[in-house]
Each structure stands twice: as structure tokens, then as C-alpha cells.
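Hello,

Our lab assistant flagged a job as stuck in the queue for most of the afternoon. It eventually completed. Since we weren't sure the result was trustworthy after the delay, we are filing this so someone can double-check. Below is the sequence as submitted and the structure that was eventually returned. Let us know if re-running is recommended.
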Amino acid sequence: MSVAEQAAAALPAPARQTAAGKVLWHFTMSLDGFVAGPEHDMGWMTSGISFPPGLVEEYAGTTGAVLGGRDGWDAFPDVSGIYGGAWRGPVFVLTHHAWDARHTPGVTFLTCDAGEAVRIALEAAGGKNVEVFSPSIGRQLLEERLIDEVDLHIAPVLLGDGIRLFDNPGGAPLRLELVNGGDRTAVVNVRYRPAAG
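-- returned structure --
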């Protein structure tokens, strides 16, 4: 077993995600804190990264609606790719300028504030979770205390540039509590080494 596999095995496994009407700020993130490369590039996720068996199905089954932002939508306007096509449902895109958006069946463009967008998405989710796929919307919802969980899958890659999960220059630190594990203030320890090749 490699060092990285040993470190991962030593971490308490998070409980499976449940469909409980939660608002999840959910991303796969690089080790250096980016959820997308420059210009929302997601090519870094297409090779050299694997997910535990059943993870995609777990999230596809517990998600009732998706809330995203306009920049992400403009970069990826195809909702059939959410969870590799394993999920179908209502998608809401929060924007300041809905009039020039490329409209797609199943996608609703909202011009309200982030709190109202969450209320609309929760209603549409039918008791399942709303997944927030936007760094800026997630930050706004954290400030309004409307995020139930920050749910991250940390990928073994350093991007160095791109779209950060949480970008709040000059803002105060925001404390989080660890959901899996006894000590909710514990540091999560991961160990990696540079991959060969």
C-alpha cells in the first residue's frame, strides 16, 4: 500500500451523503484550493484522478437540484454531463443578465439574490439536497449562513492557477467543523508524493 493510500485509509471515512434537504457547497478541488483551472477549464479532472466506487451514484441519488453561476454555465452549458450523465433534475443559474443566456430545457435563469435562489432550488429539490456548483455563490451563502455542509473531494493535483474555492481577500477567516471524526476542530492529514512520469 502506498503512503497516500495509507494516509487515506487512516482518515475516518465520511458518512454517506443523505438526501436530507441540505444545501451542499460541493466540489472536487485541487490540493492547492482550485475548483477549476483558468477560464473554468476542467481538463485536469479527465485523467489521473479516480473516485471511490459508488461515489458518483451516491451524489446523483441524493441531489434534487443544482445551483450554479453564470460564468460556470457559460463555460459548460450542457447539463447532461452532471455526474457523468447519472443525474437529471432542475438546474438553476444565478445571473445578473439572464436576457443573453443560452436557454436550455431544465435550466432556469434567476436574477434574484443568492438566498432567494436557494429557497427556489430547495423547493424544486423535493426534499433532496441542493448542490451549489459556484465558488462565488457558495461564498455569499456562507456569509448568509445558508450552507449546511462544505463537501470536498481533494484531488492529488496542484493547479497553481484558476478559480479558487474560497476567494475573500481582506475578509475574516471562516471556521468550519469537521463532520467525520471525533474532534470537529481536527486538521485533516493527507500525504502525497510527486507522481512518476
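-- support follow-up --
The delay was a queue issue, not a problem with the job. The result is valid. The chain has five helices and eight strands. The longest strand covers residues 23-30.
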